[in-house]
Design goal:
The chain is an alpha/beta fold. It has 2 domains: 193 residues, Rossmann fold (3-Layer(aba) Sandwich); 147 residues, Response regulator (Rossmann fold). The protein contains 12 helices and 14 strands. The strands form 4 sheets. Strands 2-1-3-4-5 form a 5-stranded parallel sheet, with helices on both faces. It has a 4-stranded parallel sheet with strand order 7-6-8-9. Strand 8, helix 8 and strand 9 form a beta-alpha-beta unit. The longest helix is centred in the first third of the chain and has 20 residues. It starts with a helix and ends with a strand.
Length: 383
């Protein structure tokens, strides 16, 4: 009887073990993204998407983060702020993401902030507008240089060349308007006088009327355009067709070979500020950023058979900063990750050396910007 009881106990234990399901695999870390993969800002969103996908695949191949795979959920907002807000809400409420990376444009980023900030979800924007992070918003960060920084870099270069009386032309919304407004604010500090100030719509196929006014304004020594997408190429082509011989400056919104392709020979001689990634091989060997940008450029161009994009670099930096924060936090608890992103210090990425703080959710200064000039379809480092 004792032996029979022992056998029955063993059978019962075995049945219990058999009925116990195997341990569930760890849930993936979910990173949500909304990007302008199509539409007028596709030259931003497409390289951003490809970069995020490639880097997530690499991380997963190496075992993931905290022993968990990363699941990337991406939606295409087509550059529309209303869609960006909708997708941000879907990512947070339905997809249950742990963190957001995206917002190819200032407009889409600002729309998503209204969703992410009250939901207390860490959000790293890939857009340039300074209003994304100023005033500081607890849950919002970004990786690209700001429009204000672009204006300061351009004005410093103008001043060094003795160009102090200028004309501005800019898009009337989003990145262009923000950049225009920031330019007006910082111009006096550089001794820059703005003698003419014209605007255009992103959909305008022709801006000769505005440029003719600038051409006929006495005393103008240089022209500064603030915009992105196809608009700067339209401005550049019309500028040359009107025979305006003054130096033409653009913002970092044209830091892509797509601008050169669209503008054609008219882009020759145009100057603009850009990340070191654009001129990786021209940086001095002593620059601590050189090995980072050189490696990223080589890998990107080999993988995608196209010229490297600074916008791809912004996505890379955002993911690296986010992953490092998760690792330091040891969890995907949103508050803990937010705190660690804010503590990012000394990170050397494609955009420069990043050191954030409670008062600075970008962490870059003007030393991260380089002035470049277009020559023979490529970029030449000026400063």
């Amino acid at each position: 009887m004792a032996r029979l009881g022992t056998m029955l106990c063993a059978l019962a234990f075995g049945a219990t073990v058999a009925a116990t399901p195997p341990a569930l695999a760890a849930e993936p870390i979910k990173i949500g993204s909304f990007l302008s993969v199509t539409g007028p800002a596709s030259f931003l969103g497409d390289p951003e998407k490809r970069t995020l996908e490639r880097e997530v695949d690499r991380l997963n191949a190496d075992g993931g983060v905290l022993g968990r795979k990363i699941q990337l959920v991406v939606y295409d907002d087509g550059g529309r702020p209303d869609k960006a807000a909708t997708f941000a809400r879907r990512l947070i409420e339905s997809d249950k993401v742990d963190l957001l990376i995206g917002g190819s444009t200032t407009g889409t980023s600002m729309a998503a902030i209204k969703v992410a900030e009250p939901a207390h979800v860490p959000f790293i924007s890939l857009a340039g507008g300074v209003e994304i992070i100023e005033p500081v918003k607890a849950w919002v960060f970004k990786t690209p240089h700001t429009d204000r920084m672009a204006a300061e870099k351009v004005f410093a270069d103008m001043k060094a060349r003795g160009l102090t009386k200028i004309a501005m032309i800019s898009e009337d919304a989003g990145f262009g308007k923000s950049g225009h407004d920031q330019s007006l604010k910082v111009a006096p500090a550089y001794g820059i006088q703005i003698l003419a100030d014209e605007v255009y719509s992103a959909k305008d196929p022709d801006v000769t009327a505005q440029l003719t006014k600038i051409k006929n304004t006495p005393g103008v020594q240089a022209v500064f355009n603030f915009g992105f997408g196809q608009s700067p190429a339209v401005v550049t082509r019309d500028y040359r067709q009107l025979g305006i011989a003054l130096p033409l400056y653009e913002s970092h919104g044209v830091a892509s070979k797509e601008y050169i392709r669209l503008a054609g020979p008219a882009a020759e001689g145009v100057r603009f500020p850009a990340a070191g990634l654009l001129v990786a091989d021209q940086l001095p060997a002593s620059d601590p950023q050189k090995p980072v940008v050189t490696a990223f450029k080589k890998d990107y161009e080999a993988a995608f058979k196209s010229e490297v994009s600074t916008f791809a670099g912004h996505a890379y930096d955002a993911l690296e900063i986010a992953v490092a924060a998760i690792r330091r936090a040891g969890t995907v608890d949103k508050a803990a990750v937010r705190n660690e992103i804010e503590k990012t210090s000394g990170y050397i990425g494609t955009g420069g050396r990043v050191s954030m703080s409670p008062k600075d959710h970008l962490g870059l200064n003007l030393s991260a910007f380089h002035m470049v000039e277009i020559h023979n379809g490529g970029w030449v480092l000026v400063d």
